[in-house]
Amino acid sequence: MKLLSVIVILVNFISTSLSTNCNFPPDLWCSSKEIAELCKVTEQCAANSWNVKLDGPLVNFTLYYESLCPYCREFIVDQLFPAYQAVGEIMNLTIVPYGNAQETLHGSLWAYTCQHGPNECVGNLIDSCAIYYMNQSFYMPYIYCMEKATATIDPITAAKKCGPPNSAPVGGILECAKTVFGNRLEHEMAVKTDALQPQHQYVPWVTLNGVHTEKIQDEASNHLIKLICETYQGSKKPEACKTFEKPNTNRCHK
Ligand SMILES: *[C@@H]1O[C@H](CO)[C@@H](O)[C@H](O)[C@H]1NC(C)=O
Ligand SMILES: *[C@@H]1O[C@H](CO)[C@@H](O)[C@H](O)[C@H]1NC(C)=O
Ligand SMILES: *[C@@H]1O[C@H](CO)[C@@H](O)[C@H](O)[C@H]1NC(C)=O
């Protein structure tokens, strides 16, 4: 039975790999979500090696942000995206683009007012649509690219520029941002943000396993990878956590 399932998996591996640009040897296919996706073996890896590796509950981490806040940009670019790449497999990451915005209902549509002006509302909407239309391994690099780009260009130009390199369906996302449906998606972000207990005081604002404290916020802002590694309860941690496992006692004593 066991042997049979191994053979079935192998056959799947081989037949799926023939139809892709997967240029990695099979023993690396489950080494990261990115490679697994390229090699089209995500399901097989999730069902086999990843479940074996994950022996603790995922660390819930949520970022509340607004698209044009320079400190949100800094957090996403310097901390969140690198952490997602390094230890994403042990994170249950949620991002909520709304922040310090406000909403009022006008007829059947929500009208948004944003801290950094109307362009920020457009940026939040684009992010909400991207989150809806893509899975996380696609919307994270896309939003990371847009956050970097909006330091100098507006959100719509950034959405277009960042689309092709990240295989994002830009047409659909920009269309969504103009529709009632996109308006509702953004309202869901407002609802999530307003549900925070305690209410957020600033953005970026993070919660770790549902909790916000100044200590968590500081640790996330300074070294998110370390914070996620230390919070994860599983015994087998990702490679990137090894650096933090034991204190570095290497010294040149006199
Ligand atoms: C991931 O987080 C979301 C909330 O952001 C929650 O609804 C979901 O249950 C969490 N999943 C796991 C596996 O912890
Ligand atoms: C994410 O979406 C892409 C593109 O639609 C797809 O190829 C990939 O299999 C998806 N990955 C997961 C983990 O669902
Ligand atoms: C993550 O959030 C989900 C949903 O709220 C919860 O069931 C789970 O216990 C949380 N995980 C941890 C490690 O706190």
UniProtKB/TrEMBL annotation:
Subcellular location: Secreted
Presence of the UniProt keyword Disulfide bond in the record: yes
Signal peptide region: 1-19
Residue ranges constituting the Saposin A-type domain according to the UniProt record: 15-55
Primary residence: secreted
Keywords assigned by UniProt, alphabetized: Disulfide bond, Glycoprotein, Secreted, Signal
One GO term describing the cellular component: extracellular region
GO molecular function, one term: oxidoreductase activity, acting on a sulfur group of donors, disulfide as acceptor
InterPro entries from the UniProt entry: Interferon-induced_GILT, SAP_A
Family statement drawn from the similarity comment of this UniProt entry: Belongs to the GILT family.
Protein known as: Saposin A-type domain-containing protein
Source species: Patella caerulea (Rayed Mediterranean limpet)
